[in-house]
Design a protein that fits this description.
The complex is a heterodimer of chains A (247) and B (402).
Chain A (H helix, E strand, L loop, with lengths): L1 E10 L2 E11 L4 E5 L6 H9 L5 E9 L2 E2 L5 H7 L1 E4 L6 E5 H15 L7 H14 L10 E2 L5 H15 L3 E5 L7 H14 L5 E6 L3 H5 L4 E6 L2 E6 L1 H10 L2 H5 L1
Parallel strand pairs in A: 3-10, 3-11, 6-9, 9-10
Antiparallel strand pairs in A: 1-2, 1-4, 4-5, 7-8, 11-12
Helix pairs in contact in A: 2-3, 5-6
Chain B lengths: L3 H17 L15 H6 L21 E6 L2 E2 L11 E4 H7 L1 H7 L9 H9 L4 E5 L9 E6 L5 E10 L4 E9 L7 E10 L4 E9 L5 E10 L4 E8 L4 E10 L4 E10 L4 E10 L5 E10 L4 E10 L7 E10 L5 E10 L5 E9 L3 H8 L5 H17 L5 H14 L4
Classes of the chains: A alpha/beta (247), B alpha/beta (402).
């Protein structure tokens, strides 16, 4: 599904990713862990198409297509979804409006008709309930005045509505208390399927207690320096990242 | 028919205008707006034309008072029966005493456009809502411009004690040619009376517009104004209100400029007595080479203690060549007041644009969604649903989303 080859990326003329390789197949969950400043957020942002990142080498293909050539909205429509570490607040745009506009943009891209208004409401209410969110959130401005946990749940709600193929969770566990973490994790687990893959970018092992990864990679100094199974996360939790950087 | 008191006022104003002409840009209140193009056009005063090609507006959720080229058209209008609403020319015949007592009383500082208006107004609206009366439906005042001329109109609106009314004034034109609307309204809001006034300026694209609204608020009187500047080539709006004890004034505004439009908004809130409340919120969106001006001043007199006043002006510049001159001023002579003001000038937030893109929405649509949301905040404040709907539709067509 996703193939990253020898990816090098500069931010403000400084090399952040220094030859990153990663392959994610359908249905897999990959965790990317690593110390601060290793390039974790850069990786999520580059995959989602955010401006300000200069790709200086390597390639990224998504379902055989060159992902880096696509503008951000096309990546989203093709099925790449980034759950932001810091979701922005958008005054004056309601959640329900954004969800509908986004869903219709994705559907149009797939050659489907616009979603029926009643079907949409039924769907969005069901998903909202599943994430233990009050329906009132739908009619509030996007993320405006939401708590940290509410914002993260809102990201998962959008994900659930758009049904992407590749979900990138950027530090989704940061700022969440245990209850919110459980709800978010349940939301993600409910979306697991053999056609959908996840990349979880996280500093801590905590999230992985709730969402069990198939693979764990350690990103340090712009490269993946070690890969393993779920056990690797536990090892990292115990030993920290220092021993890898020294190696 | 000539009424001597009015003739005197007209002659004085004409003499004054002869000396000063339209306001020059060396005057402080006019420094951001050059109006010399108006005089250069040498517009004649619009004439009354017998036959006009418009249909009467369907009565429904509002009453209608229609002015074509500055002349009241009874055949196109529908007016309330129980409350005095008539043309100013009719009022001069029927309500001369009341009119004389109020005429020119709401205007403290005159200037060339006001003098010109006094000397030349052709017609206008007169409203008198007596004590404890309520105008049951909003009164919509529709100015339709068709001639290449100057259209000077004058309104006098009087609400007696405890009266209540809602007015919607719209300026429209089916024409693309240049003309000049010159509109002055004097508004008297009596003790504990409540007036809401909407102004929707959507003049033709080459029109010049001056609209001045001068308000006197008695004790506990409430005045709410919603000022939408959408059309014209060059427009100047004055909104000036004097507040007696515990009067409340709310001024909302939205100016949307594109191409070469120049939209100037001047407001003055004069707290003359204690315990008044004022809320002012103006927003501007300027695209292309459009230029906006916001000059808001709140004056709190020395004895006007316990005033609670807020002024806010927020601007969105959508192009590098667009410009805003904003000058919020608090002039406070009392020592026990709560007054604040704030101004922002900015562009659309890149992070918000990217957020929407990351959800599959293309960049242009994302920008439209955010711009619409910025403007819509002012539209949402409209209490009269049909007007809210109409303005939303207009905003949507200006900033098309999906």
């Amino acid at each position: 599904m996703l193939k990253i080859k020898d990816l090098t990326v500069n931010v403000e003329n400084k090399q952040i990713l220094k030859g990153l390789n990663l392959e994610v197949n359908a249905g897999e969950i990959h965790a990317i862990m690593g110390p601060n400043g290793a390039g974790k957020s850069t990786l999520s942002h580059v995959l989602s198409g955010k401006a300000g990142y200069e790709v200086t080498g390597g390639s990224v293909t998504f379902n055989g297509k060159d992902l880096l050539e696509m503008p951000a909205e096309i990546r989203a429509r093709e099925g790449v979804f980034l759950a932001f570490q810091y979701p922005v607040e958008i005054a004056g745009v309601t959640n329900v409006y954004l969800l509908k506009a986004a869903l219709n943009a994705v559907r149009k891209h797939k050659g489907l008709s616009e979603v029926d208004a009643m079907d949409f409401l039924t769907l969005v209410k069901a998903k909202t309930k599943a994430l233990e969110m009050d329906e009132k959130f739908l009619y509030r401005a996007v993320n405006e005045g939401f708590s940290g946990g509410e914002k993260k749940r809102n990201e998962i709600l959008q994900m659930a509505m758009l049904e992407p193929q590749l979900c990138i969770l950027d530090e989704t566990d940061s700022g969440l208390d245990i209850d919110a973490l459980r709800i978010v994790a349940d939301g993600v687990n409910a979306l697991r399927s053999e056609n959908r893959s996840f990349i979880m970018v996280t500093h801590y092992q905590r999230l992985l207690d709730y969402i069990k990864p198939d693979f764990v990679h350690v990103l340090a100094d712009g490269k993946i320096v070690k890969s393993g199974g779920a056990d690797l996360a536990l090892e990292l939790e115990e030993k920290g990242y220092g021993w890898l950087e020294q190696a | 028919m000539s009424i001597s008191w009015l003739e005197d006022l007209r002659q004085q104003a004409a003499a004054q205008f002869e000396t000063t002409g339209f306001p020059a840009s060396n005057l402080e209140d006019w420094r951001y707006t050059n109006v010399s193009a108006i005089a250069k056009n040498e517009f004649p005063i619009a004439k009354f034309v017998e036959d006009v090609d418009f249909d009467a507006v369907e009565s429904g959720s509002a009453f209608h008072f229609v002015l074509v080229d500055g002349y009241f058209r009874e055949e196109l209008s529908n007016l309330p029966e129980d409350i005095t609403v008539c043309s100013i020319n009719d009022a001069l015949k029927k309500h001369d005493d009341l009119l004389q007592a109020k005429f020119n009383q709401a205007i403290q500082n005159t200037h060339g456009f006001i003098d010109f208006n006094m000397a030349n107004f052709t017609d206008g609206l007169f409203v008198h809502v007596p004590k404890n009366a309520i105008l049951e439906k909003p009164l919509q005042i529709i100015h339709i411009a068709t001639q290449k001329a100057v259209l000077p109109t004058r309104h006098v609106v009087i609400l007696d004690e405890n009266a209540k009314a809602e007015l919607i004034e719209m300026f429209v034109s089916p024409e693309k040619h240049a003309y000049f609307t010159n509109s002055v309204a004097e508004i008297f809001v009596g003790e504990n009376a409540d007036l809401t006034l909407y102004k929707v300026q959507q003049e033709g694209e080459n029109a010049y517009h001056f609209g001045g609204i001068y308000v006197q608020q008695q004790k506990h009187a409430r005045f709410t104004h919603h000022n939408f500047a959408l059309g014209s080539l060059l427009a100047r709006s004055d909104v000036v209100s004097d507040l007696e004890t515990a009067a409340e004034c709310e001024l909302n505004g939205l100016y949307l400029g594109n191409q070469n439009q120049h939209l100037d908004n001047l407001t003055r809130i004069n707290h003359k007595q204690p315990h008044g409340i004022s809320r002012e919120f103006y927003k501007g969106i300027l695209n292309d080479k459009a230029r906006g001006v916001f000059q808001g001043r709140i004056v709190v007199a020395e004895n006007a203690q316990k005033i609670d006043s807020q002024m806010n002006n927020r601007n969105l510049l959508l192009s590098n060549e667009a410009e805003i001159d904003t000058k919020p001023q608090l002039e406070i002579y009392a020592d026990d007041v709560k007054c604040s003001h704030g101004v922002t000038v900015g562009q659309l937030d890149e992070k918000s644009i990217f957020y929407l893109q990351s959800r599959g929405i293309d960049e242009e649509t994302a920008k439209h969604i955010l711009t619409f949301a910025f403007a819509n905040e002012m539209v949402e404040k409209i209490g009269f649903e049909p007007l809210k709907k109409q303005l939303k539709t207009q905003l949507s067509s200006r900033f098309p989303t999906i």
